[in-house]
């Protein structure tokens, strides 16, 4: 499981880095989103992988921390997903405005 | 108020008064003078009252704890030496305030003047009374800033602006060096406390960092005290109002440098390095300053170079490293302050009355203003070192020290000759000043007819000259005890023997004095006729303009070199920057792994589920596919991106993170919609028509591919290493144990977000809100490129076939209405379902997966679905969504929940919880955290809707294409 997820994260980040280095703004926004997935999964995996151990407490009894997946990275990633959406929107608008103003969708605002 | 309690008001009151002075009306000359004068006099008395406590080596301390964990305290410390300086600063400050009242013209905006003056005084008092090195540097820099403001007070005058800028540049640069030196001292000693540092002298002198420390501290002191070659700022600072010059160049500012050297004397002095550096600087300054002073035509210029020379004398005395030298230096600091302040005041009176300070245009003023002339003559005599005046005494001590043997070096052997020569120069320029201004015949072209100034304008100078006389005649009775007190605190209890009296019998120093006096008079006789008509500045040297050199250096450093560096190292292109960033990240991680190796896996989730593996095969294909298609097939790339997101979402679900899975799912939906809305505004790019790929492009791609593959492999390795290691104990346990008992919820992730870390969440939703508003604002001025303004091809076809209406509004509506008819009916029906689902997600959030974030985005998805189904106009005719209001209400609600806990006496965002039984629905958890979550819900919903609608609206706005620059965009050179 760990190896599969690690390879998955690697593929997401690798594809993302490739796109980040491309000249067109659309490629960059897709690349950033892919890196976003990869990084979110990476942070999430810092709590180690657990199956069937959702951090939702049952009724009654004293909770045993060992029985649950680590909730802290999950809380971090949850807000990261929402903020990631917001920044994607911001970047999208910036790239549209840049395209409108300069006529080019190159990341530098002008064709090389 | 005596003792430690007095120190803090002593330093802080000037700053408070400075603020008050600033707020008075601009014509309140008398009010300003009374306010500043009374304050300064009060501070003078307050300082005088501390004398019994600092006598005979006593020290007053007061410490305000600030960050004690890292040794940062506001520490105030006054000993005898600091006391002497406090007296000088407040005493001469008081006289300057009185003098300035009569000097400043009614047109000058005096509040600014007095405000700066008081703040400057406070900074000086802060320097001398600091008990902490860092604090000392802070006050040191404050004096640089306030002296800049004071010198540039007449900012309409270009010379004042340039002089101020030069003073700030040089002294603040020295201040930075001083800070570095102090930090090094702190590293060596392990404390920034003044007492600890003063006690650690031998440790610092023996340390291998001694030389860097010495140089850095000395650069600070030399720049401030205008020592050669940093002296250039001082003559240029003469464009300041004369009261400022009288204050800055007698008792304060320039004295801060020599104060620091004397303060650090027990710590740094006594070594060969100290002797060489300080001695050379002091000797050069002493001689050159005195020589240049002779050839000045401006009275203030003469006094400025004389100040430089006297500071060189003090520095030279300190360089000797002998206790007697230090005593003489301290004595001369006080003496110079008194006679130089009175001389500047006299210069100001002459300027004020005669309208010029040029000695070629002045003469014979004795008959017109005898009192001022007498004052100036006595003070000049003190400057020249004539017996019966205070300047004579310290000069005698200087001569006595100069002939002593200190070290086997040329410097030491040269000292007596340099001393006599410089003293002769001092006699020459003093006579030149007196003779040139007060004697001879009155020139015809004198701008104004001078007469005596008001009594109170003379009074400060009279008092200062009296001090010169009294100290000069009865040194032991007037100054003896105070000098002793000051010297003890620098030298420690083992004081050298010295006697303060005017007559020590016929000895070598007296002979040197006589020699200097006679030589000076002869020199003046020789130069007299030359000086009466010569140009400003000394012969030959006047070609070497300090100011021009300074400006050249400034232009080189701040402009030419900066441009050069930017052209070498800078780029405005994004790709090289990102490439560098990725490469550095890769290198950093790679080095770390290379150094520590790859550890053996400790922890493995048993087995690998084939379905999970298959899932990620799809995920990896999606990711690589998206990367491959993003250039020419944007929609494919978007779909593949969504696929990768979905796989991520399922992985969350699989690995025990239902909340994340839910959020990822709804965010995925809105992100896809969002990007799809943006696709319309991008340029067409067709693979077959693109130009040939060049060899360079292939090479670039290969390099980027290498970087991408390495990054991917690197993060795979990193993730695998971490995931297979046992996790250290974290704060997670606390959250699990207290989620229900403390936060009243079963869903730990949600409790963390809305309760434990509620404040973070409040910050995060604020960020989301700000981003949404930014998106909205950016789009209001959106101008699409010309090739995107027309309706999409599909709509054009539809409008040809379906619509015959002439009205374009009607046509647009019809096109939107006809489009995707079956799905749009379903989407409209789905609206209430999604709304209920969102409410359900929200309500269960505290106990089961769900919560404000996911519910907010889900509801936003419900709205945007309606927009997609029926078109913008149809929706907005039926539904008024006010996203900005939703956001505002949400933020206020979340903040109000937090503030609400204050009402009950708890810290911000403390939650309270209980269960409420409602009819039909049953038991409902009612934590205050739920109200906070409601705020999150409302804000996230509003923000998401705002962003989506803002982009969606662009299609129906009457768009004007941006005017593009013809052909290639112009490069900003």
Topology:
The complex is a heterodimer of chains A (112) and B (973).
Chain A: H1 2-20, H2 25-45, H3 71-102
Helix pairs in contact in A: 1-2, 2-3
Chain B: H1 4-22, H2 29-49, H3 51-54, E1 60-67, E2 72-78, H4 80-103, H5 110-128, H6 133-151, H7 158-189, H8 194-199, H9 201-206, H10 210-224, H11 233-236, H12 242-248, H13 254-263, H14 265-268, H15 272-294, H16 299-319, H17 323-354, H18 370-384, H19 390-403, H20 410-438, H21 455-473, H22 475-478, H23 480-491, H24 508-533, H25 546-569, H26 574-596, H27 610-629, H28 634-654, H29 658-679, H30 695-723, H31 732-743, H32 748-756, H33 758-780, H34 793-801, H35 808-818, H36 821-844, H37 852-870, H38 872-878, H39 883-903, E3 915-918, E4 922-925, H40 928-953
Antiparallel strand pairs in B: 1-2, 3-4
Helix pairs in contact in B: 1-2, 1-5, 2-4, 2-5, 4-5, 4-12, 4-17, 4-21, 4-23, 5-6, 6-7, 7-10, 10-13, 10-15, 12-17, 13-16, 15-16, 15-20, 16-17, 16-20, 17-18, 17-19, 17-21, 17-23, 18-20, 18-21, 19-20, 19-21, 19-24, 20-24, 26-30, 27-28, 28-29, 29-37, 29-40, 31-32, 32-33, 33-39, 33-40, 36-37, ...
- The number of domains of chain A is 1
Number of strands of chain B: 4
Using only CA atoms, what is the Rg of chain B?
Answer: 40 Å
Low-confidence stretches of chain A: none
Could you tell me the mean pLDDT of chain A?
Answer: 89
Strand order of the largest sheet of chain B: 1-2
Helical residue percent band of chain B: over 70%
Task: Classify the secondary structure makeup of chain B into a structural class.
Answer: mainly alpha
Largest sheet of chain A: none
The most extensive contact between chains is:
A-B, 95 and 124 residues
What overall geometry of chain A do the principal axes of the alpha carbons give? elongated
How far the N terminus sits from the C terminus of chain A, by CA atoms, comes to 44 Å
Average of per-residue pLDDT values of chain B: 86
The SS-based structural class of chain A is mainly alpha
Order of secondary-structure elements of chain A: HHH
Strand content of chain B: under 5%
Instruction: Give the oligomeric state.
Output: heterodimer
Number of helices in the DSSP assignment of chain A: 3
Largest sheet: number of strands, sense, barrel closure of chain B = 2 strands, antiparallel
User: What's the number of extended β-strand segments of chain A?
Assistant: 0
Low-confidence stretches of chain B: 966-973
